[in-house]
Design brief:
mainly alpha, about 80% helix
């Protein structure tokens, strides 16, 4: 069981690493059109995963409360969004003004960019970790297939994130190897966040529904704050919307069919 969980936690990290490695094969930055499509697809995957893999199981685990079964889902969801809001204010965004002149070195700017993306990877690692914790604890609402489906869905979503980090860094003068390394490092927080979440959830199984909805709230924050604005930029916003639909439906089908 431990090996199964370890592999599940590493799957999203693998997606980020493969995306970061694109810097070795592509010469230019990702086009706005492609970024819209990838952001839309990622947003759809994360929204569907938040509903079917996290919020619905959260309410199902406390179905004996009747009409009050929504309480853990509502409380955890709000807490997750507020937590990410605080972190988002504490860590700078990755969008930096290239024309700004000041004491910031290239290394400092690079570090800020990696920190920003790392922030967005925390809730994804938590989401995978909490599902595996629920499965390990024997919850009837959570299956190994469901946890694996979420891990794969997040890995698909992480693939463009790795490229969005490594390729712009290379265009700013960093070597391909260093650019790839920074992209990979931005995703290493995911298995770590998942492992910590498993440790916490396994100690107090009664708060597992709150952990599930907390992860959902954190993921939805990322969607609303970052992915939706990115998929709507420029002239190709309709493509982002279509890819949102595609990602949402694909993740919903996988979760229902395999979970």
């Amino acid at each position: 069981m431990n090996w199964i969980i370890a592999k599940g936690l590493l799957i999203p990290f693998l997606g980020t690493s493969l995306g970061a490695a694109l810097v070795f094969f592509m010469k230019k930055e990702l086009s706005i059109r492609l970024q819209n499509m990838l952001s839309g697809f990622a947003a759809g995957v994360m929204v569907a995963a938040s509903v079917w893999s996290l919020l619905i199981p959260s309410m199902g685990m406390v179905s004996d409360r009747g009409k009050l079964a929504f309480v853990p889902a509502a409380v955890g969801f709000c807490a997750g969004m507020i937590f990410l809001l605080i972190l988002d204010k504490a860590i700078p965004h990755m969008h930096l003004d290239e024309s700004e002149e000041g004491p910031k070195s290239k290394l400092q700017k690079t570090t800020m960019m990696v920190l920003a993306v790392t922030l967005h990877n925390i809730p994804e690692g938590m989401a995978v970790g909490i599902l595996y914790a629920g499965w390990a604890n024997g919850s009837a609402q959570i299956t190994q297939a469901g946890a694996l489906t979420l891990a794969i869905g997040i890995a698909i979503q992480n693939f463009p994130e790795g490229a969005i980090i490594s390729m712009p860094l290379h265009s700013k003068g960093l070597s391909k190897a260093k650019s790839c390394l920074y992209g990979i490092l931005s995703g290493i927080v995911e298995p770590l966040a998942g492992f910590v979440t498993i440790l916490l959830a396994s100690q107090v199984s009664s708060i597992l529904p709150y952990f599930l909805s907390f992860a959902a709230g954190a993921m939805i924050f990322v969607v609303v704050e970052e992915l939706v604005p990115e998929m709507s930029e420029g002239e190709h916003s309709n493509l982002g919307t279509i890819m949102f639909m595609t990602g949402f439906v694909l993740m919903m089908i996988l979760d229902v069919a395999l979970g």
